[in-house]
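Q: What does the assembled structure look like for these inputs?
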Amino acid sequence: MSVIFEKSIPGRRGIKPKKADVPTSEIPAKYARHNELQLCELSELDVVRHFTELSKKNYGLDTGFYPLGSCTMKYNPKVLETLPKLPGFSQLHPFLPQLRSGSMLTQGALAVLYGLEEVLCEITGLDAYTLQPLAGAHGELTGMMLIAAYHKHHGNKKTEVLVPDEAHGTNPSSAATAGFKTRPVPTDKETGMLDLEALEEAMSEETAGIMLTNPNTLGIFNTHINRVTEIAHRHGALVYYDGANLNAVMGRFRPGDAGIDVVHVNLHKTFATPHGSGGPGSGPIGVAKHLTEFLPISRVVKRKDSTYTLDYDHPNSIGYIAPFYGNFAVCLKAYAYILMLGAEGLKEASEQAVLNANYLMNHLKDVFDLPYDRKCMHEFVLSAARQKKNGVQAVDIAKALMDEGFHPPTVYFPQIVSEALMIEPTETESKETLDAFIEAMHRIADKAEKDPESLHQAPTSTPVGRPDEAKAAKQLDLSYPGA
Amino acid sequence: MSFTANTPEQQKAMLKDCGVSGIEELFKDIPKEVAPKSFALPRAHAEMEIQQLFDDIAAKNYTHLTKFLGGGYYDHFIPAAVNDLAGRSEFYTAYTPYQPELSQGTLQAIYEYQTQICRLTDMEVSNASVYDGGTALYEACQMALKQTKRSKIVLDSGVNPVYRNMLHSYTTNLSIDFATTEVTHGQSSREKLFSELDDSTAAVILQNPNFFGSIDDHSDIVEHCHEKGILVIQSVYPVAMSLLKTPGEMGVDIATGEGQSLGIPLSFGGPYLGFIATRKKLTRKLPGRIVGRTTDPAGKETFALTLQAREQHIKRQKATSNICTNQALCALRAHIYLSLLGKEGFKEIANLCHSKAQYTKQRLQQIPGVEVKESSPTFNEFTLELPTNAEDIVGKLVERGIAPGLPLGQFYKGMENFLLVAVTEKRTKYEMGMFAEILEDTICQ
Amino acid sequence: MIPKDRKYTQAHEWVKEQDGELIVGITEHAQEELGDITFIEMPEVDEKYEQGADCAEIESVKAASEIYMPITGVISAINEELEDEPEKVNNSPFEQGWIIKIKDYDQSQLNELLDAEGYSKFLEDSQ
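A:
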């Protein structure tokens, strides 16, 4: 299939804007572009066919099972997609509420932001939220900045953040971006939970905070969560909760109840907004009372007459994380999702997510190594160590699954398990889908024993085979030539 | 209503396979001490109720105001095909393309998007996008700081104040010095800019057109900076790029900007699209995702994420940036938009914006008491000085159905009577005429 | 394969003394772990680095790894061939895939490094 620029026909027109109803003006030569901007020249139908063909080479959640660990690829309800398209939302200019009496022009939008903050507080047990972070990693950075602001305000000299060794890569990189050093804390090999002794040892006067995911990326709930917060607080450190795995515990655990100081949620995971093939997402941050003064501005407040307005009067705020109020269209969808499900629906979602994961785990542990053979939460990690003995690695299993019609799970993460396969089915998958996946995995395990070479050739049924990634990094071809 | 599928019978069978008698057993690891103190949310709503509810909420937003409001975010025409194509579920329900064999659609689209950005800005390499124009500027700063190993950034005061606020917020805990030039509306003052440069300066940040609407040729600034080993970062307005001298032509090192004007709705603040493009030698310093073209074992053209060794999932705390996502769906929209309009259509849009802005400027200039501020040319936005407080006048015009522009007093001290007016291709002669009449009427009262 | 004519560090680097300079590269084990090497970010010639400081970085398709200065000294040369052919580090880690050369180094630190046997044992113990 050609790159779109290859299809260009000089002189062909696509969409034509309306004719000018005013005299044309020229840009003075000194400031004008000297070469011609070479965009493509195609008809509207050419363009429609090009992108339609491209879409057919993509596998989305609507296409089939997508068991990526810690990504929570749950169904994206279609009604949510209709909401941002309402002109009352899509055409709303973000500067409007900043005009004189402008908040009265945007009461609907402000109500959505305020409403989402309220329900997130209740779901996670925290006291206040900011919706400004524009993605998960952006939320992490915001959380780290809040922790830094807190310590600075209290005159504490804290330079280090502790990060469990099974943590997502954005955890240490966000801490570093906020100016902290990071120190890893090991996971106990027996229990799969954070090693409390090692934690106590790693804590010092320099520790600003600890970043925690619970359940962790192994899908294991830390039963000692109270002790973790106790140890941290005793050393004057704050606890940050990465909400990537919140889908396991809605209605059954609220990080705020365990004394956690900062909570991060991913609207594009737990709250069903689509992943968009890599964004846009949204990573709201919740805080306990002692941190609310540091939240980014503006904040949405409700006045005595029940109207909403923007409030900038927070002298200790960390400032502006986003240009405006966050990814509003994403927040809107998440808010509607929470209103659709209600408390019962969210609780049910977590229950079915955990049941689906345990069901899969039980049916796969006979043919794959299971480093932590115990009940899991919403996800679990297998190891292809057994298959590696025959020369079949996690990557080969992933590619073979494509030929079986499935998107593979996450591979090579968490790094503490060798040849890791991290599987999260989510609650929206049916038993038939899970059974089909189980059968496919058994077929692959069988091939790994009897015909391992066939797995090295996989995938063979996809639009392309395994890309030469070394070549991609050495012979950089990052844009189509010929401007 | 949680979109789950399995019936009670199926669940029973599954629980049995797991060796438990009920769901509760699967949650026994959660200690009683942390059981939720409360979980009281609004009641569940059926789909039909949601549609009604949000119709009512949307109705409380005043989008009918005729928009002369800009400040970096504009009311542009979005072709229907953009929504249609970007709304294909294979695009929007897919995950990040870490498994290239199943994501050639996304990967090729992003490769093409990267090409579009390079062509728009006349730069050599673009990444797959970042969150918005403000974070793009921050990432560009980081690139310059790392490349030069210096610690100071000089900001022109004509750079969008929204972005400058973000830059200051992100860097509070980092040892970076910021110097902002003294304010002038109109083009950047070379004198003020050059007086801030010293041996510790890593980069200078400019904007074209700047926040006041002035267009400029920054080549002389670039030359002066390069002599001192200082990099130049320029934030640009993409619609203007078909007509204005590009960052590439000026010798700029890193070009950034906000892509909202390329087929992305205003949506009350997001999601938006940050683009960032640079010269070949800074390629490995680029943050975020980049798509490259390579081959598969059969020699077929194949696209894949590349240079991933820079990214957080490999380098963790040493990554070039903590950024994980790109705004893939927004980048896709921008690419579709540019493809639909094409070479001539996009230029025509830019011409309409410029011509209509000139027309509006001339009409408003005729109003006694209203003064157009710049001595230099403008593109789609310009600054007016009104006889009295701009916020008051704006308040009155809003009551009469017009959002006439952005009062600058909230951003720049001493500019309380100044108004920033934006005109896009959507504005009609009638609307522009009405604006002038109502403004004249309001002022003369 | 662990040549006996040189010293080793626990960061899987080798150090060979030759004509008053030290030549530094990474071991067979390291190149295998990294996979296909795609790029090496080199230090500046004539820069001084303390022992243990990051002086270079190796990128492969799936990983990125620091090269730590094995001994305090001054960079006297970098292997420029690696710019176009980084795969030399994979194919010939001990010979053509050398990375940097060091001069004005601290001899006493050199004596404290592992010898071939010591490195071999270190590898065994860590697996």
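Chain A has a mean pLDDT of 95.
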